[in-house]
Each structure stands twice: as C-alpha cells, then as structure tokens.
Amino acid sequence: MEDGGQDEGFERFLKWAANLGISDCTTNLSLHPQSPTSCLGHSLTVSHFPDAGGRGLAAVRDIKKGELVLRVPKSVLITRDSLLKDEKLCSFVNNNTYSSLSPTQILAVCLLYEMGKGKSSWWYPYLMHLPRSYDVLASFSEFEMQALQVDDAIWTAEKAVSKAKSEWKEANSLMDALKLKPQLLTFRAWIWASATISSRALHIPWDEAGCLCPVGDLFNYAAPGEESNDLENVVHLMNASSLEDTSLSNGETTDDFIGDQPDIGLERLTDGGFDENMAAYCFYARKNYKKGTQVLLGYGTYTNLELLEHYGFLLNENPNDKVFIPLEPSMYSFISWPKVSMYIHQDGKPSFALLSALRLWATPPNQRRSTSHLVYSGSRLSVYNEISVLKWISKNCAMILSNLPTVIEEDSLLLSTINKIENFDKPTELRKLLSSGEARAFLEASDLQKGKNGSELMFSDKTKRVIERWKLAVQWRISYKKTLIDCISCCTVTINSLSSQTILAIRTK
C-alpha cells in the first residue's frame, strides 16, 4: 500500500487540516499535539486502491471495530451557516425573494459563490481537492441514458437530469444577483455543485442540506450487506415464531432459495455522526481492520442505480442491488408488503416478499385464506405451487431479456472495446474500434470525428468523462442482465430438483 505519493498540494491540504484540529488521534489532542505536516498518521494514511475506489484511507495500525478513527471539528465543516458568515452572501440569501429555494439549492449556490473566491476562500485548500466532475445520472447525455437500455433506468436518469435543470433555473436569479463568474453560472457548474453535495455531504442534525467534511470525505464506500441480512433474519424468525404452524405436514419449509426476509424499511447504516459533546464529526471503524487495509465507510444501502444517481459510481458486487420484474396489479392485493419489497437479489434469488406474493397468487382463490399463514412463514404450499411460481418468474425474466436490444455477451465485448478505447492513442486503431454498432453510435453522438487526427479530442478531459459515463451505463446493464440470467438458473435448478423428488416419491409408493 502507498502511504506517500500525494502531490505537494495535497500535502499542504493535510497540513491545513491538522492546523484546524482535524485528527485521527484516538486520545486527547492536548496531550498529543498534531504533527505540523499532516492531520493523519496515528490511525490512517492516504493511499491508493486502484481496484477499490482509487484514493482512500488505509490503516497505519490494527484498528478494532467501533474505534474512533477520525474527528473533524464543527468549525471546519462546510455548512450553510458557516458559508453565510459572508455578509454579502448572507444579505442576498436571506432575501425573501429566494425563500422558495430548498436548503440544498441554497447550499449549492453558496458553494459556487465560495469557489468564486479562489485563493481568498478560507476553505481553498479543501475546495481545490474536490473532484472537477462527477458521473452522476444528472450529467448523462441522451446517448448515455439510452445506453442503460432498461426503461426504468432510463426514466430515472431522465428524471435526474430534469430535476437538476429545474433546480438550476430556479436558482439562476440568486446566482445572477450575486454576480457569479460566467463559468459558475452554467448548468455544468450547477451539476458539479449539486453532485458535490449529493455525493459528499454528511448528515447533521441542524440542517437537512448536510455538511461537507474535509478529510472525512476521503473514506471510500462499503456496501452494507451482512448487517442488514442479519436484521432481516431476526424479523423473519419473529414472524415465524408468532405462528403455531410454520411448515407443511410433509416437512416442507423455506429453503436456501429464498433470497431474504420481509423488507421493513430498515434505517440506513452509517459509521459516523456529529457528536455534540466533542463538537466534531466523528468517524468509527465499521469492522476490525489490519494494518495496510483500506478503511471504509458504510453510508447507506443503495442499489447500483442509486449509487449512479447520487454518487456517480457502481459496485461490481453489490449485495444491495435488485431487479424488479413486472407483476400483474392483482398480485399486489394478496400480500401486505409494499411493491418495493418484491424483487430479485443480485445473486438471482427472489426476495421473500416476491416468492410469498406469487405463492399466494398461484393458490386457488378458495384456499388463499387458509394457507396465508404458511405463506407468511416462508413455507412452500406444495410442489406443484412452487414449480408454478418458479416457472412464472423464469418466464418473465426471459421475456425481459428478450426485449432488450443486446445480450450480455455483446455487452461484455463492448465493455472490452471501451477499455481498449481508453488505452489506445493511435488514430487508425481508435477509428477501427469505433467503426460499428454502439461504438459507431458513440462516435457520432460524441462528435469525436471533428478532431484533426481523431485522437486529440478522444483524449481530452471532456471526452474521457463521456467515455467513463458510457462505460458505467454498459457495466450497469451487464449487472442487470446477469441478475436475470442467474435468477433463471436458480429457478431451473430448483424446478429440476423438485420434479426429481416428485418422480422418486411416486416410484417408491
């Protein structure tokens, strides 16, 4: 692991942070004065993790779960209150003319105003190390949105773009009144500011817009997985224990095919919060970490589409990802769980609620009342019922896949092509890679052929961002299709197993 390698500017940022009291020291700061060169070194260090989020924080010693690893004083947090200490900004923002703007819109305007100060900003060392762009859905072009292929995902992206444009237009009059620099008035600048808040802001109890937390936002994301499953198992066991009969007479009960237990709107998991007693934002280890490993922050149970929408990245293995399949309206009337709980897990297993709803739906109407308690306990009603349900799920997964414009094998080849595009720098090779199919459509949509030699524009910063968003869209749809394919496989395996058991039982009679 690298514990050096930061550029000179970043080292100045860490020194600035140390001088302001940001610390990874676990004991009283007055007893252990900070190093003049960095706010880190007692518990954490900045390192690079190419396959796990890029720059992040690594443990410089063994860290125990629950241990305090970083604290950032309230005085260093960027909030609406702290930014509005600027008299000019405060006088405009507090004008009733702009009272319709949301707290997040106000924070975005304040952030752009602060950026406009340049080196005169008190937070300049921090602001200069924020990303220059984000790949959130609101930044997607029409081509990139269509590359998602799935209607729900395209709709989500379109809604994100529409919302961002609407909020930008609403805030325009305030930004004009503040006389922001022309480059800070653009929609691109607004996307940057709103995405900075969306992807980096942390919860604080006194402002729903949240705060930006220098150094604290260097933690990379860890998807909560086992924790939420454990809680769901407890809920399922509580439900099952309240029923006298949780199995069929032949011993059939819920097996490993069920992907989870009922969704109950669990609170999002976090590994930090503002501590009033310390007057600081405090971060704690979410698990035990060995020296040299990356220390991660779990700040929510998000699907990959939600990660794209709010943070601009996705995970290859996300235990919280899910795929929804269309259900007939009548199916929702058989069960009390909400629609959002009826889905397919990333590993292809149907959710508890989806299986339960379909088991009851596949039961003759005159028998539903008498069998509902078995459904709620997670039990199979009969072999015939179970096979009918699994065939229905498999058929609908196959139907969704057949209606998409490409198959997963084509997407995988395209992803390989995109990786090559990112690495090639010879114009003739690039043009060959972009000569057919979706790659050709990308070339046309991106106007890359306007470059003098075909490579100059290809490797501009703007073009690199376009390529990265296209790549994210392809990665997302591959993950989506893989889940459906895995579900078909899971259903087929279970159907074959149940059929074999039935045949064997008949033969042994």
TrEMBL record:
Keywords: Methyltransferase, S-adenosyl-L-methionine, Transferase
SET domain span: 42-300
BP terms from Gene Ontology: methylation
GO molecular function: protein-lysine N-methyltransferase activity
Gene3D superfamilies in the cross-refs: Rubisco LSMT, substrate-binding domain (3.90.1420.10), set domain protein methyltransferase, domain 1 (3.90.1410.10)
Coiled-coil region: none
Protein name: SET domain-containing protein
Source organism of this protein record: Populus deltoides
